[in-house]
Amino acid sequence: MGKFMQWMRNELEGIKLADVKSPDQEVGDNEEVIGTLTDTDLQKLRVLSVRLDRQIETLTKEHAHKAIDMMGAEDGPDHNKETCEVCTMARNHAVLGDKKDAVNALFWTGLRHELPEEALMKLQKAGGTVGIRKDWKIVACHEGRRSLREALLAFGLPIPVSI
Ligand SMILES: [Zn+2]
């Protein structure tokens, strides 16, 4: 735990306020704004989570390429898990995935913890799914509640200008 906490502290300290950007995604038709995330520590956690996502994406590609390059080597008599590049990548990959899951869990737990009782009730009513949108808006996603607009689109019906 010590090394992980140290790593996370270093990462969060390395994120400058100028790097703290809200998600681009707008509030959806079936989503209800229940608050705004203003805590910078949590905003930084979200930035870190997105960075880890990108690192994982890159590593996944590298890992796949390397695995193709070295196809068959893992079955050979000289295969050594300690020195093999693919095995080393697999180890790093697993740790990075764990870190991302942990940072993600911290973010969502922290976010829920910030919400006042009233917002938690709205969230419960909506079905319990919480999301984060543009300008750090916190939304409750209404499960199964399709807006009229979405329903019309789904059935290929014309959308009146009033909606
Ligand atoms: Zn290997």
Report on this structure.
- It is built from 5 helices and 3 strands.
- The chain is mainly α and 163 residues long.
- It has one domain (19-154).
- Strand 2 (129-133) and strand 3 (137-141) form a beta hairpin.
- The longest helix is centred in the middle third of the chain and has 30 residues, at 40-69.
- It starts with a helix and ends in a 9-residue tail after the last helix.
- The mean pLDDT is 88.
- Bound molecules: zinc ion.
Summarize this structure as a short list of keywords or feature phrases.
three-stranded antiparallel β-sheet, mainly alpha, binds zinc ion, extended, 163 residues
Spell out the blueprint of helices and strands:
Blueprint: H1 2-14, E1 31-36, H2 40-69, H3 85-114, H4 117-126, E2 129-133, E3 137-141, H5 148-154
Antiparallel strand pairs: 1-3, 2-3
This protein binds zinc ion (ZN).
pLDDT averaged over residues: 88
| Unique ligands | zinc ion
Number of domains: 1
Q: Count of DSSP helices?
A: 5
In whole angstroms, the N-to-C terminal distance is 52 Å
The radius of gyration computed from the alpha-carbon positions, rounded to a whole number of angstroms, is 21 Å
Order of helices and strands: HEHHHEEH
Oligomer: single chain
Alpha-beta content class: mainly alpha
Helix content: 55-70%
Globally, the shape reads extended
Tell me about the biggest sheet?
A: 3 strands, antiparallel
Number of strands: 3
Strand order in the largest sheet: 1-3-2
What percentage of amino acids are in beta strands?
5-15%
Unreliable segments of 5+ consecutive residues: none
